[in-house]
Every structure is written in structure tokens, then in C-alpha cells.
Amino acid sequence: MAEPAIRLTSVSKRFGGVQALDSVDFAVDAGEVHCLAGENGCGKSTIIKIVTGVYQPDPGARIELFGEVVEKVTPQEARARGIAVIWQDLALFPEMTVAENIAFETMLGNRPRRVSYPAMRKRAVAALARLDVDLDLDARLNTLPIAQRQVVAIARALVSDARLIFMDEPTASLTQSETDALLDVVRKLSARGVAVVFVSHRLAEVLDISSRVTVFRDGRLVGVYPTEGMTQGRLTELMTGKHFETTVAARDVTGPPVLEVQGLTRQGEYADVSFTLHAGEVLGLTGLIGAGRSELGHTLFGMSRADAGQVLLDGKPVRFPSNRAAVDAGIAYVSEDRLSLGLIQPQSIADNTVMAVLKRITSGGLISPAKKAALVDHWIRELAVKIGEPTDAVSTLSGGNQQRVVLAKWLATEPRVLILDSPTVGVDVGARAGIFRIVRQLAETGLAILLISDEATEVLANADRVLHMAGGRILGEYDPRETTLQGLEAAIYA
Amino acid sequence: MHSFLRNYPTEAKLLAVLVVICAALSSASPSFLTLVNFTDLLNNNAVNVIWAVGLVVVLIAGGIDISFAVAASVVQYLCVFVFGWIGGGNWAIGFVVAGVLGISLGLINAFLIHQFRIISIVVTIATFNAFFGLLMFFSSGRFLYNLPGWWSDRLILWEYETSGGTWAEIRLPVVVMVVAMFATWALIRHTTTGRQLYAFGDNPEGARRAGINIALMQAIAFGWMGMMAGIGGLMQSHITREVVPNALYGRELEVLAAVVLGGARLGGGRGSVLGCFLGVALIAVTQNGLNLMGVSPYAFKMVVGLTILIAISMSNLDFSAMTAPKRRDL
User: Fold this and answer.
1) Could you tell me the pLDDT band of residue B7, with boundaries at 50, 70 and 90?
2) The CATH number, out of the four listed (1.10.3470, 3.30.70, 1.10.287, 1.25.40), of the domain defined by the range B7-157+169-315
3) How far is A163 from chain B, CA to nearest CA, in Å?
4) Distance from CA of A91 to the nearest CA of B (A)
5) What is the dihedral sign for C-alpha A384, A385, A386, A390?
6) What architecture (CATH level 2) is domain A4-240?
7) pTM of the full structure
8) Which one of A208-217, A429-438, B251-260 scores highest in mean pLDDT?
9) Distance CA B256, CA B64 (A)
10) Residue B220 is inside which H or E element, if any?
11) How many Cβ contacts (< 8 angstroms) between chains A and B?
12) Which of chain B's termini has less CB crowding within 10 Å, N or C?
């Protein structure tokens, strides 16, 4: 057994009436890759903030950092002892160069000093060398893809001689190959004795990279498990306390064709795409980020125009000059980036729900409160959105419930075709099941659904048919009932 | 050259536009490309550049300041009284007094912004009105001509008689401008504090987490702006030999336009001293050219407005994207 890097015992934290952490223990060994798993709100981020001194634990906790008991952890203290956090939003400086971002700590301090650019570069080069990565030091950070920014954030942690690095949802916005590259870096760190705590709810990676996994649920410690022999299903059960069947929902759909896409091409985005979507069908569209899935969705929704090919809706060719026209024709598109594109966060649940159908709830040119309330009530009930009041801001809802509000907004347009682009990004395992139950119910009512997702498990479990897209082309069609996850993933990551 | 183009894309494009305009003007008017005209332009725009390098520090730190021109007027007035009270003074005392008064006014802005978490545009619109109202009230709008001699006497630091018998000269404000530019450049490029200002403007939350002292950042940014406002005010009165309470009212927008033209971003994190100079120069040269060509002064504002629009639009164009193969939309 290796030396423990950190050991926390009986840590509790209360915020007002909420017990965020209830007497939990948490330990990480030196050089270990450890996973911290749990649903949103389980206390994962609270414990990171306690280790890094952002929050102080309630009395009774014992914190041991690298063999020393520390009475009061401050952010400075934590950093000095070699604990670093790479936040989900990275906390980098997009207008500054790579070198400045990596060696930013050389510029800290209240007393002005001369900046030594050569010294800064030297430290940046050294940090990147430890990662075996080559980056242009003079490039502005905002010109780099997100995966390389992640590398910059890790390099920054290494500059301050971190011995324990927390990574908060590091793979949330990465493609599979970028994730692989990141995991490679994590393995190298581990080999050099740096402990890495991965906080993620993309479970496949959790199992792949770590040696042990600590599971939290509702502020309590569920347990610490070796990843040897741990299955995805078992981990989900531990995190949610519920049992989920991963079954295949696919069935034969006999409905008439609603949306027919024939040889659709848009230069640089996708080429020669053809498929038919039937009423009552859930058609999965999977592939890596950059395969052209979302771009295809944009064209179907009238937000970009194809160079060639045609789209038939109910057998009649359609061409949408704008997405307004697509909405009027009965196409709804739930966008990938729910937080920034799908919802107006500070506005109320009610306002968000009716946003796309304002014309329908007016009387005499003004919005009728009665019609609005009736519509909002209907959809909140229909989709079982858990809310306080319809007048509460959408930002007060959990990820899963926010996703339901987006769905409500588009279902209110009474669409024939629903395009769901990565509907479960940032949504908990438990809430995902709820969303797919709704998707299934909608299909039963005859809605034609195009489900875009980069998670092969998701489309296999929930779609009736699966299309695989890569490099802008449809490469194959799969029947989930006759396809294994391994088979589909082999095709996707080929 | 390559790294200049990459790190200062806006400045590079602005420089190109300036060269084109200068070339056009020198062929349109023989008196444009002369030494006398060039030194006149420098003398007349030095104060704007001094203010611009103060303002760019605030913009880099993610703020904006509407109040500095009016603050400069306040400093001018207070200076007249301070110098009268101490019985004269000299340039050394003058710079210190104007600088300190300016810094104090700037710190009022910084305090309000930091303490009450109000965004800077709202605070400085409020202090703009408050400063101006107080100034008009206590001065009753009176002009002051009783400036000490050292303040109002022209200081010519270099002169040269051209063949045509006119004099090209460099006056004190130009030297002060050069010093202000150099000091600001040293601050923002070569001190850790300056880099923290960029970081703070770029990503305030990231800066906070990295352990940057936010209150100090606001104080430095608005203090620096205030100092430049005060010194610019001192120079302005030196040029006009009088203090007029509403003379500088409205100059803030002209300077702001120049600074933004020079590549500073209203969102923070970007801006340079070179950009400030080029921004002021572009507006000044355009105006000067129109003047020399005999265009009605009433048309100036319109043309200057159009110039700003065109230059800003150009600087937002991505030339590499334009040269890429065109996509055919149906």
C-alpha cells in the first residue's frame, strides 16, 4: 500500500438547512488515480472545496495533507502543499498566451515586480515537457481547441509542483480521442507520483482510468471500491441507490415516413446523407464530435442551407429559409448546448416554456396570462417537471429538470419531428432515465424523433435504429437488438 | 513581423489604414505631408493620447470610465486654487498636485465599483454627472484666466524653421505624452501588476481563484486613469492658457472611440499603448485632412463617425477566412 497523499476523516458541512456532507471519510494515495463519483449535489464539489481551503469544514473534521495534520486549510496553504484543482470551466485567461497561462503563478503577488518573459517561458516549457506535449507557447489561448486548453490547465498545476490534482469533469467537452489523450497525460502524472482525483459522471472513463473509486450519495459516503471487477451498472446503482435495467427499447416501427432526407450535402460539413424517419420512430444518430451530426441537425432545422440534395416532409419537398419556417412546418430542435442556447437562464420557467409559441398565447396582440398559465401547466404536468413555482428562474432547476423545460418549450410548438441533440450532456444518470422515458412516450404518440448523441450506450438503449456518422457521411445502420455495444463502439472509434 | 501581426492584429490593420489615409491625403493636399503639419498634429493631440493610455488600463481591467474628462476639469479648477494658495508653484509641484488630485478622483470610482459591486459604466456615469454638477455649481460656470506664469507660458522644447519661413516646434505636452506612453507600456507589459490587470479583465473569476487582489486591481486601474486625467488636464490648460469648466465635456467619448479603435476590448483583457496612439492618430489625421481639403467643419463629426465605423468593421474582418474558398449556399 502506498503512502496516503491526503486523508480526511469525519468531514461534515452544513449550508443553512442543507447537510452537504455528513461525516464522510476520503483518502487518496500518492500517485494514485482515484475517482470521485456521484450525482450532482452529492457533495463531490464540497469536498474538493474543503480540501483546497475554499470552505472550512464543520468542527470535528480531521484533515491530513501529505502526512501532516492541518488545522485550518486556506487556499494559499493548500496550494503551497501541492494541491491543485482544475475546474470544469478551467479558470484560464483566454486573451493571454499559452506561456503566460501556464506560468501565471510567477506573476502573482501584490508588490509589482518586473515580468521576466524568458523565465516564464522556461517554466512553461518545463511543465509541458513533463506532459510530453508540444504546444505553441506564443499562441493566444482562445485560438486553441478546448482539449489543448485542458492541457494548459494541467501544465499550470504542474508549474506549482502539484502533488495532488483534482480534475472536475475534465472530459465533459472532449471528443473520445481527446479524452484518450488526456487520460494518457493522467497516466504519466501518476507514474511520476502525482495523485489525480477525477471527478466525473461519464462512467466509462471512471472505470477505465482509476484504481479505486469513492462513491458519494446525498452527502454521505457510500463506499470506496477497487475498480477491478466494477461494472457500469453496479456503479450507477451505487451512485443513485436505484437499480436501472439497461435494456434495449428498440422495436419495429410501421408508421408512415415523415422526414425523408435524400443525398443532402453541405460542403465542409456533411455529404450525401440519406435516411428516412418514420412516425413514432426514435432514430439514433451517433458518431464523434465533428462528424457533422449537429451540422446536419442545423440544416434540417433551417439554420443553414444544404448545397445539394433534398428534404421531404410528409412526401413533399421542403426548403426552410429560416428556423422560424422549420418550426411552423413542425420541426423542433433541442440544441446541444442547453445552458446557453436552449434556455434564457434568468427568466422564469413559464417564460421559457412559451418562448417558441408566443403567437399562440396572445389575445388582441398582447400575451394572455390565462392562456400562458394553461399552456405552462399542461407541459409541466405532462413532463413531470419538478419545480417550485412557474415564476421561478430556470437557473434554479437541476440539469435534468432544465432539460425537461427545454423539451416542454419545443413540444409546445406541436412538432411532427423532434431533433434531440445530445439531450443528456450534464444530466445525472438518474435523470437521464427519466428523460428517455419521456422520449419513448413521445414516440408512442407518433412523434418522429431524431436522437443525436455521442454516447453509444445511449442510442443503443433508446433508439429503434441507429445510424453511424463519421466525416460527414452515414457509414452504417444498426439494429440495437442485433448489435453489441462493443460492436458499435468499435465502428465509432475505428 | 510575423509575431507583431499575430499578437497585435488590430493594431497592424489600423496602421495599414492609417498609412492608406496618409497617402491619400498627401496626394490630395500638398500641405498635409509637411513637418509643420506633423508637429502641429502632435501638439494638438498629445492630451488625447495621455487620456487614452489612462483609459486603456481601465479597459484592460474590464472596466470603462466615462468620468475622466470631467474629472480633468475638476483637477484644473482645484489646481488653480491650490497654486494660488501656495503662492505660485512650479512644474514639479504642478505634476504632483494634478496627479494626486486625479488619482483621488479615480479612487472614488474604484471604491464605489468594488465596495458596492456596481458595474463601472453606471458608477462613472454617476460620477461624471456628480463631478460636472459640482464643478458648475462652485465655479458658476466662470472661466479662470489667472493661471501662474509657469503654467500658461508656452514651453517649446525643439524648433526648426522650415524653408517656407514657418516654424515646426515640439511643445511640452508632446514630451509628457511620450513619458505617459512609456510609463503605461512599462506598467502593462513589464510588471506583474500589469499582467494581473490583463488577467483580471480577461477572466475575473479565474483571477480571483488564482489569488489576485481584486480591490487592488480596481484601485490601480482607476488610479492610473485618474492620474492621466489630472496630468492631461494640466496640459490642456497649459495649451489653452485658461480653465473653462465645460471645455472638456464630451471629450471622453472621442477618446473612448480612439482607444476601442486601437484594439482595446470593452470586455477586458485586451489593449495596447500602440493601439491608443494609432487610434487617436487615425481620428486626428482624418479631421486634419478634411480641414486641409477645405471641407466644412460641420461635416467633420459625420466623417469621423464613418471612419470609426469602417475601421472597427475592418478590424473585425478575418482576412484569412475571406481568402478561403467560398461556400455556395442554395
Assistant:
1) confident
2) 1.10.3470
3) 18
4) 4
5) negative
6) 3-Layer(aba) Sandwich (3.40)
7) 0.77
8) B251-260
9) 9
10) helix B214-240
11) 81
12) N
